[in-house]
Amino acid sequence: ETAGWYSEPIETLEDYKGLKIRFAGLGGKVLEKLGASVTMMPGGELYQALEKGTIDATEFSMPAIDQILGFNQVVKYNLFPGWHQQFTAQYMLINKDEWARATEAQKALVEASCTAATTRGLAEGEYKNGKVLAEFQDKGVQADQIPRDVLLKLREVTEEVLEEEASKDADFKRVYESQQEFMESYKVWDTRAYVPADL
Questions:
Q1: Which of 8, 101, 133, 141 has the fewest CB atoms below 10 angstroms from its CB?
Q2: Record keywords: Signal included (predicted)?
Q3: E strands, 15-138, where?
């Protein structure tokens, strides 16, 4: 995901104040704390809302999908990174009784199919997005990074929102703590295993 499509660039925290933006979930709560006017609307209404100025900005998906919706035709700033959502997970719900009746082979087939679909989706997205961004440049779209100081503040406010949500919901707290433990563990690997991007 990206940080969204904007009619004007985000250069300072002040740029969020009064910004009319479609932004989902916890990321929307973060932007509200920074003074944005956050709304939700279906994806099919976003082009018209941007075109008419009903909203100044929207977050939606990755460049390959956003171009299909034509956001680049009405606003010219596509900002990165998707600080609020690095990955979109897909879910498959199966009735518990039906799942209990499934054979082990059927369960394994469903699990393997879901893993394959996720892996393929990630790979295709990584492949397509670079090409789409190159095309955006030719169409006058500025694909820019949010400034580091703004990203640091977004992280700080995100942590506040997550702590607030965890204090109100035991399930949220359990998942949040599990994710925090994973991040600490993964950091040991991540900081050593990959060639720095600037090399």
A1: 101
A2: yes
A3: 20-22, 37-39, 57-58, 77-80
What is the C-alpha to C-alpha distance for residues 59 and 28, in angstroms, rounded to an integer?
Answer: 10
Which is it for the CA torsion 41, 43, 44, 50, positive or negative?
A: positive
Q: pLDDT tens digits for 34-72? A: 999 999 999 999 999 999 999 999 999 999 999 999 999
- Domains identified in the chain and CATH numbers: 4-86+133-193 (3.40.190.10)
Q: CB-based contacts of 121: which residues, under 8 Å, 6+ apart? A: 90
| Closest alpha carbon to 68 in 19, 135, 116, 120 | 135
- Length of the chain equals 199
Global pTM reads 0.87
